[in-house]
Specification:
The complex is a heterodimer of chains A (about 550) and B (about 90). Chain A is an alpha/beta fold. Chain A folds into three domains: about 10-120, Enzyme I, Chain A, domain 2 (Orthogonal Bundle); about 135-230, Phosphohistidine domain (Glucose Oxidase, domain 1); about 235-550, Phosphoenolpyruvate-binding domains (TIM Barrel, Alpha-Beta Barrel), CATH 3.20.20. Chain A is about 50% helix and about 15% strand. Chain A has 23 helices and 14 strands. Chain A has helices at about 20-45, 50-60, 65-75, 80-95, 100-105, 110-120, 145, 170-175, 185-190, 210-235, 255-265, 290-300, 340-345, 345-360, 375-395, 410-415, 415-420, 430-440, 455-470, 485-495, 510-515, 520-530, 535-550; strands at about 1-5, 135-140, 155-160, 180, 195-200, 205-210, 250-255, 270-275, 305-310, 365-370, 400-410, 425-430, 475-480, 500-505. In chain A, the strands form two sheets. An eight-stranded parallel β-barrel of chain A has the order 7-8-9-10-11-12-13-14, surrounded by six helices. A six-stranded mixed beta sheet of chain A has the order 4-3-2-1-5-6. Chain A is globular and about 85 Å long. Chain B has about 90 residues and is an alpha+beta fold. Chain B has one domain (about 1-85): HPr-like (Histidine-containing Protein, Chain: A), CATH 3.30.1340. Chain B is built from three helices and four strands; from the N terminus they run βαββαβα. Chain B has helices at about 15-25, 50-55, 70-85; strands at about 1-5, 35-40, 40-45, 60-65. Chain B has a four-stranded antiparallel beta sheet, covered by helices on one side. In chain B, a hairpin with a 2-residue loop joins strand 2 (about 35-40) and strand 3. The chains are: A alpha/beta (about 550), B alpha+beta (about 90). At the A-B interface, helix 2, helix 3 and helix 4 of A face helix 1 and helix 2 of B.
Chain lengths: ~550, ~90
């Protein structure tokens, strides 16, 4: 809750100010170009490397002779500079949008962003939000260049008219831990600067000028959230241990080195899954060995001596990376993804493995291979790793101790776990894919949402098999899928004997309390009885009393 | 005037980053006219937007034409970039 700052773009329907002579308009245009260039260089100084790349492309667009030519022509024909810029930008954006290549089509947004900056400069304004005191930012939609340089400590929340769960605003809000409501239709028209705004990101609620009752409700909710946060902080250092003394390591999942630090702040006892895809997404070329090495080393350092399981590249399936030029597949989830892709691109795989082993000296590294379907995949991946290690040592690079494990997400790997166990240091069960492959349910298909059941007895039987096989060979088993962060899932996994649960860091406090309140013997009994049941509903009914007790 | 045909072998073709590298190289040859043709369309190699709008993907063929005092040097520099896969 706080005062609004309403961010309005250049009004597209602003009546064309009486155009000056073509010479005057041309001079205004050239001054605007200089101002826009200055803004971009200023932003670049504060930007991270990824934003800098965007800004540098914008700078080149701003210097584009064809753009200048078209604008000058329209000005000569008597148009005001604003109109001339808009028309030229739309011509280029339209050309890009007509291309087959999705990546190039998306560059239309960059051209428009440059155009917006120019039009703003023409009327003496700047693009981008500046906050002077704590505020809720309300806007149509936010582009990366709007939020570069935004003062995070003054930002209370975002509300946007447009956007969805994967829009820039949503992603930024999640990574900053700031409430946001997107697709709030009509908010831009209703809101004024300085109005009090109450927003609840979880409920998707925005209230402008809340009445006394609503204010009270929000103030109470904010106070509760503060108390909860304090309690979570106080409990963060407690270990995952049941009242009868069984330890289960509670770890965090992370998508970047910064998120490793975030997981540690939430009391994670390690990182059970660091997805290496962050290095490969949102760029035009594959990251170099050096870039990867720096990022892995940073992640390991951020974990302060605790174990970090880094998963090798898992793309294909639903995650496309344009520069890899992956062919379109009929059935991408059953196609060339993850390890299968790495085997076909040995150079890509080798570069990542070299970077990982070089980083091993910076902390406690565990390497995990995704999409292992059986012994052959595991042996091939381990052979590649052994080659890389020999090469590095021959070059004089030090390599420290590390663990090697696999993600168990294909039913065949779960069924053959006793053969795989002797050749790994650990298993980590990727329940998201294991559930989808076992039940043949696409987890992204809303039609089938009710059939996607992590607590399905068929899934539990596979997990039970994996845990037994691992423990028979004195290996440990973790779970890094979403099931570990669900209360009922965590209880069942605890009962099945899983040694580590890794989840989104925000879920750790709740699961930690649950584990610390649930005797292992009770969880064990429920899990064993669940294995004999026939439907997920029966399993959930059985877990329910234990869940209530634990919470 | 010099003219040469190239096939782009780098994984992304002329996407934003390779195209930006290309334009920056072209800017080094101020007095030389440099054009890029794909199919029927020919554009100035100094314009990032025009190059992007050609939609040049991996495996596609383009023709570069240079004319001016440094035409040979320019062609050699651009050939080195394309044949080196833009460092990808």
């Amino acid at each position: 809750m706080g005062p609004a700052v309403v961010y309005r773009e250049a009004q597209p329907d602003r009546p064309a100010a009486a155009a000056g002579t073509p010479a005057e308009e041309q001079a205004r245009y050239e001054a605007a170009c200089r101002q826009a260039e200055a803004e971009l260089s200023q932003l670049a100084e504060r930007a991270d490397s990824q934003s800098r790349e965007i800004l540098s492309a914008h700078q080149l667009m701003l210097q584009d002779p064809e753009l200048h030519g078209r604008v000058a022509q329209a000005i000569q024909a008597g148009q005001p500079a604003e109109e001339a810029v808009r028309a030229a930008v739309e011509q280029f954006a339209g050309m890009l949008e007509a291309l087959d290549d999705q990546y190039l089509r998306e560059r239309a947004a960059d051209v428009r962003d440059v155009g917006r900056r120019l039009v703003a400069a023409l009327s003496g304004r700047t693009v981008g939000i500046r906050l002077e005191r704590p505020a809720v930012v309300i806007a149509r939609d936010l582009a990366p260049t709007d939020t570069i340089g935004l003062e995070r400590s003054l930002l209370l929340g975002f509300v946007t008219e447009q956007g969805g769960p994967t829009s820039h605003t949503s992603i930024l809000a999640r990574s900053w831990g700031i409430p946001a409501v997107v697709a709030a239709h009509g908010v831009l028209e209703a809101a004024r600067d300085g109005m009090t705004v109450a927003l609840d990101g979880d409920a998707g609620e925005v209230v402008l000028e809340p009445d006394a009752g609503t204010r009270q409700r929000y103030e109470a909710a904010i106070a509760r959230a503060r108390q909860q946060a304090e309690r979570d902080r106080a409990e963060a250092s407690l270990p995952g241990e049941t009242p009868d003394g069984v330890r289960v390591e509670l770890a965090g999942n992370a998508g970047s080195p910064a998120e490793v630090a975030l997981a540690m702040a939430k009391g994670a006892e390690g990182v059970g899954l660091l997805r290496s895809e962050f290095l490969f997404m949102g760029r035009d070329t594959a990251p170099t060995e050096e870039e990867q090495y720096q990022a892995y080393a940073e992640a390991l350092r951020n974990a302060q001596g605790k174990r970090v399981i880094i998963r090798t590249l898992d793309v294909g399936g639903d995650k496309d990376i344009p520069y890899l030029g992956l062919p379109k597949e009929q059935n991408p989830f059953l196609g060339v993804r993850a390890l299968r892709l790495c085997f076909r691109r040995p150079e890509l795989f080798r570069t990542q493995l070299r970077a990982l082993l070089r980083a091993s000296v910076h902390g406690r590294l565990a390497i995990m291979f995704p999409m292992v379907s059986g012994l052959d995949d595991l042996r091939r991946a381990k052979a590649a790793l052994a080659d890389v290690r020999r090469a590095l040592e021959a070059e004089g690079h030090p390599v420290a101790d590390y663990e090697v494990g696999i993600m168990v997400e294909i039913p065949s790997a779960a069924l053959l776990a006793e053969h795989l166990a002797p050749e790994v240091d650990f298993f980590s069960i990727g329940t998201n894919d294991l559930v989808q492959y076992t039940l043949a349910v696409d987890r992204g298909n809303p039609e089938l949402a009710s059939m996607y059941q992590p607590c399905h007895p068929a899934v539990l039987r596979l997990i039970d098999r994996v845990v037994r096989a691992a423990h028979d060979h004195s290996k440990w088993v973790g779970v890094c899928g979403e099931m570990g962060g669900l209360p009922e899932g965590a209880l069942l996994l605890l009962g099945l004997g899983v040694d580590e649960l890794s989840m989104a860091p925000a879920l750790l406090p709740r699961i930690r309390r649950l584990v610390r309140a649930t005797p292992f013997a009770k969880a064990r009994a429920v899990a064993e009885r669940s294995l004999a049941l026939g439907t997920p509903e029966e399993v959930l009914t059985l877990v329910e009393p234990l869940l209530r007790r634990g919470e | 005037m010099v003219e040469r045909t190239f096939t782009l072998t780098n994984p992304t073709g002329l996407h934003a980053r390779p195209a930006a590298i290309f334009v920056k190289e072209v800017q080094k040859f101020a007095g030389t006219e440099i054009l890029v043709r794909k199919g029927e369309r020919e554009v100035s190699a100094r314009s990032l937007l025009s190059l992007l709008s050609l939609g040049i993907g991996q495996g596609e063929t383009i023709v570069i034409r240079c004319e001016g005092p440094q035409e040979k040097e320019a062609m050699e520099a651009l050939a080195a970039l394309i044949e080196g896969g833009f460092g990808e």
